[in-house]
Amino acid sequence: MTRILFGILKWTLGTFIVSTLLAVVLFKFMPVWFTPLMFIRCYEQSANGEEMKLRHRWISLEEMPEDMPRAVIASEDSRYMKHHGFDFEAIQSAAKHNMHSKTKHGASTISQQTAKNVFLWPGRSWLRKGLEMYFTVLIEFIWGKERIMEVYLNSIEMGDGIYGVAAVAKYHFDKSPKDLTRRDCALIAVTLPNPRKFSSQHPSDYMLKRQRRISHDIKFVNWKKEQNTDK
Question: What pTM was estimated for this model as a whole?
């Protein structure tokens, strides 16, 4: 019985590793048209008796304004080009803050958020967190920073039923992605911690204040230059 259970476990683990590696390799080259979160949100909308909304169009990084990746780096992950998927300085800082404060800070990098969005489901279980770390290592190694950023900016939730830069440019700014200004990019970046609470279509005073800060910080982010230096 022990040998049978060990054989089943070995086969299951092997199948998991092979299938996940294959999925990561495929998505290095293929557009990510749908994510688990998109289907979950559609189910939630249907269950609540709402109209199902899924607005998403894949575009290349070259079709986005240069300030868009800079804005999310400035807002979400300032050490994006320096870490390898996990920002241990941010993790340590967040842990110290959370020990003494009622407000909780997270330390997820853009790489971790991308891994979660593309391959996993929302949640805080140890299983999901472990899988997130596994996929983060894979995409950092197989995709690289530029591809991670491209997938992130195409798949991240940016509003109610809105996913990615192309959709938010159309439905919140009535523009093509390339016509988004620096301030537009900064405002989009402001929403990313909670795009269901913060709307780039109807920004609050707090969001406009953050927009000004990020618009200023964008000028000091030259992520492609840093990327080439690391090679």
Answer: 0.89
Angle between helices 110-119 and 145-155 (to 10 degrees): 60
Whole-number average pLDDT of the chain: 90
Check residue 52 and report its DSSP letter.
P
Q: Does residue 32 contact residue 150 with C-beta atoms inside 8 Å?
A: no
Q: Which of 121, 136, 22, 149 is nearest to 88 (CA)?
A: 136
Spatial distance between the Cα atoms of 2 and 43, rounded to a whole number of angstroms: 41
The tens digit of pLDDT for each residue in 64-79 reads 999 999 999 999 999 9
Q: Are 157 and 200 in contact (CB under 8 A)?
A: no
For the chain, residues with pLDDT lower than 70 are: 94-106, 225-231
